[in-house]
Amino acid sequence: MDFSFMNIITDKVAAVLEPQGYKRQKVDNSDREYAALFTGESNAYMVMYNAKKQLVALKVCGMDSDGPDNSWKSMNTWIFDPEKDDNKEASSIGNDFADALSVNKPKISGKGKKKNSDDGNADPRFFCKRMVNVFPELKEEIWEEEDGYDPFRGVTFAQKHIVPKVNELLKNGNKQSISKLAGILNAQYIAGDLNTRSIITIVVLNGIKPELDSKIEGELSDVLGKAWGFAKKYRTKKVKPEKVKKVNNKFAEKLGQ
User: Fold this and answer.
1) How far apart are CA 93 and CA 192, in angstroms?
2) pLDDT band at residue 164, thresholds of 50, 70 and 90?
């Protein structure tokens, strides 16, 4: 199989990782699977393509004395069909992976090191801006929110502007668009701070109409899928909007639980 499109994606990932000291390792690829491995001092990244599933994935794991510990976690996933998609789509995927790496620098621990589960630092504003990649019309709505309120009301904005669009996409969208949405949710759940993770599970995913759950469940990472499973018990409870001009830390802590 011709994996030239993966060179486009991998080169964009390398442009972010190599200046940070990551080295690309030689990997034996088959004609149905492709992988590019980058190793650093404390973690490793892999860009993978599965021809059978037509899935491109960016993954991360920790490093131990023998190399990658192989406890891979998905950061982002996209659908790519070589018969329908072109280099422009590959470039878009590469840019998305590079963007995720630039913001999300997970402290994946090796042996003897403790990983802090709250290492993510991307805030709700950043999360909402990432969703523009799926819903371009959000750009003007974000500008209006930024002009009218301080701080940015992540919960209110997600309820009003993101949740209806997600439901519409799941109802009428194609598989590739849904996969793109799931990829952003997966990446931002890892990259996000406590508020962002809560918005993704309690507001966005719980805001999906139950009959549409199956459209996205299989696209979510194991980490996010498990988190949403715990969050579903709050599905029937109303989430209160933030107070304008004041950050409601207690609310964020409650959602994080």
Assistant:
1) 20
2) very high
What distance in Å separates the CA atoms of residue 178 and residue 128, rounded to the nearest whole number?
Answer: 17
On whether the pTM is more than 0.90, the answer is: no
